[in-house]
């Protein structure tokens, strides 16, 4: 689905690996409010590339929760699980440029050899497989060793030179400011996960371009990832949207709400008698 629209286009893109909670509600409310302020529209996208954790019942629950909050969106809804061939083509384009290389390192090996962490706190990849001989690469690929493909960030930055992206805030209607990107702090990120033609970074930039997204609203915890997205947009010849980073909804101990922490879902709050107005008051929108 390609959006050929003249007005601003935003998106809310949850992953169906659990129930939506107040943090998701805030992000959705923020995105739809921003679209209204800009005179544009907000799209819903389902980011279900994690085929093991994504469940149809969670997709249905996302629709139910968002309808309950009063949202509507254009159809059809984009499902990433239906776009694997498109992501593979994007990965092949980068591979043809000599910017992707196979990595056979396990998580245990990475943790043992890493020197420092990336902005997400994960072990920084030391480049172990970057200089592997082509013959060994082919042998291990033909043998079927578990493999993921990483972006050679240093080589990619040599291609693009200085890299920037546009940010607005705190209001979505503020004048955009130019920010310099620093992809090097991420090391050689994984773009194609084991057994998959894509990972989050690759699929999100491809989909934002396909849907004509003009403004990306995301939590402050995703601000650093924009470095990688700006780099991929440049390498793939894709437009770069304007970014806006909003606050996070925290629990009582100061940590952001998350499915992995079993944060209370919107359906649970609804069962307790909460109304959409109660949700808006709770998140401050």
From TrEMBL:
The keyword Ligase applies. InterPro entries: aa-tRNA-synth_I_CS (IPR001412), Glu/Gln-tRNA-synth (IPR000924), Glu/Gln-tRNA-synth_Ib_cat-dom (IPR020058), GluQ/Sye (IPR049940), Rossmann-like_a/b/a_fold (IPR014729). GO terms for cellular component: cytosol. Residues 10-277 form the Glutamyl/glutaminyl-tRNA synthetase class Ib catalytic domain. Gene3D superfamilies: HUPs (3.40.50.620). GO terms for molecular function: ATP binding; glutamate-tRNA ligase activity. It holds the Pfam family tRNA-synt_1c. This is Glutamyl-Q tRNA(Asp) ligase. GO terms for biological process: glutamyl-tRNA aminoacylation. The keyword Metal-binding applies. Belongs to the class-I aminoacyl-tRNA synthetase family. Keywords: Aminoacyl-tRNA synthetase, ATP-binding, Ligase, Metal-binding, Nucleotide-binding, Protein biosynthesis, Zinc. It comes from Devosia psychrophila.
